[in-house]
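Hi support team,

I'm opening this ticket because the web form for multi-chain structure prediction keeps timing out on my end. I have pasted the exact lines I submitted so you can reproduce it. The total is 466 residues across two entries, so I didn't expect it to be a heavy job. Is there a limit I'm missing, or should I split the entries? Thanks in advance, R.K.
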Amino acid sequence: MKPFLAIVRRDVRLAFRQGTDTLMTLAFFVIAVVLFPFGVGPEPNVLARIGGGVVWVAALLASMLALERLFQTDYEDGGLELLALAPMPLQIVVLAKVLAHWLATGLPLAVVAPMLGVLMNVPPDVFPVLVAALLLGTPTLSLIGAIGAGLILGARRGGVLLALLVLPLFIPVLVFGVSAVEVAAQGFSPKASLLILGGLLLAALALGPWAAAAAIRQALE
Amino acid sequence: MKRLDWFANPARFLKVARAVQPWAAGIALGLGAAGLYLGLVASPPDYQQGESVRIMYVHVPAAWMALFCYTMLAMASAVALIWKHPLADLAAKATAPVGAAFTFLALLTGSLWGKPMWGTWWVWDARLTSMLVLFFLYLGYIALNGAFDDPARGAKASAVLALVGFVNVPIIKFSVDWWNTLHQPASVLRAGGPAIHESMLAPLVLMALAFKAYYVWVVLIRIRAEIAAGKIRAARLRATGSAAL
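Hello R.K., no limit was hit. The queue was backed up. Here is the completed structure from your submission:
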């Protein structure tokens, strides 16, 4: 547990000291959402109808921004090899780095989301559901993204490639995240969608670190 | 596993491939011609859809092949990762573009079929959407496979991706079904039901078998080309190595 926390602490500290990851992710999130009223017009009804989906898609794209560097910097300076040689299983290392990535990007996204909900005219009583869905969904995105981040180590044009690899895999999270918000906006219980989001998170938690560790191992060979 | 080991020798594989290839080609062309004749000429038009039902004889087998190729891709990738079988990497790499092409063909013919039937080129029907996502998965695989200077790295990375995608395909399918029922009523359910007359079933089965044989044919050509490319690469390396000395 101690080395796990040490990796989390180090990565979170690095993310906040450089300041770019969290700030860039949030700035992109806000700007991407703000572009939509310009694209579809400022009618409150239209915005309310698409608001939940727009916030979700923007959050999904924003959470991808910092993903490329999840293992890249450690891979380049050789730190990743030391982590792979450490007595701790590589899956746990992956889990620690994913947790740090989520704390630096996913969590702030969920915190900021209600503010964007206001801009998109999403009904305020839906905000708790929106935040809950993002809190359940963004860790899944980070876990799936970690697999992609491991696969592109050493590849040419890794960033664009990463988007092509992981965006199709993000679709289930998007579907159920948006459905939670929409169902709540229509006045029904979003429980089913939230439970499925939780199920996706558990499945990603169980399988993702193994796949990501396999991806990293083949990159280090 | 014994049988797979037996194929691990490229020279032996090449011998078998050379023997099988003309048969596969013959079966693909013969069954394809028969299937097209039965489908386009000899079979009756549908009582509801008229002549445009004939698109089915290409569309449905292509959609089957799209899923079949992804299964083959995942199986070859698993064999390559677990047993480090030298030909499984090549088989996976050879399968991917064929599968992508069949997926694209299924999407294209589906779109052409959709225009007269539904009045639009594209609807966000659950099936169409999951085929589109499958197409993206193929593209990701092909892109990752070619993204490394060392072909062995690309093969391994894309093998991991193929398995991750294979686990995800049912989840994506399920979520797209859910999404579709949430967003729009089932307005595009096709008429016909499970019962299909044998005059239509025969060309369908013939075309499906022809596509399978075509797959074997093309994949064998592609694997042989990959083996040849590997030999050329090795020979070049030897040549530059001796020149440097």
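A quick check on our side: Residues 184-194 of chain B have pLDDT under 50 and may be disordered. Let us know if the file doesn't open in your viewer.
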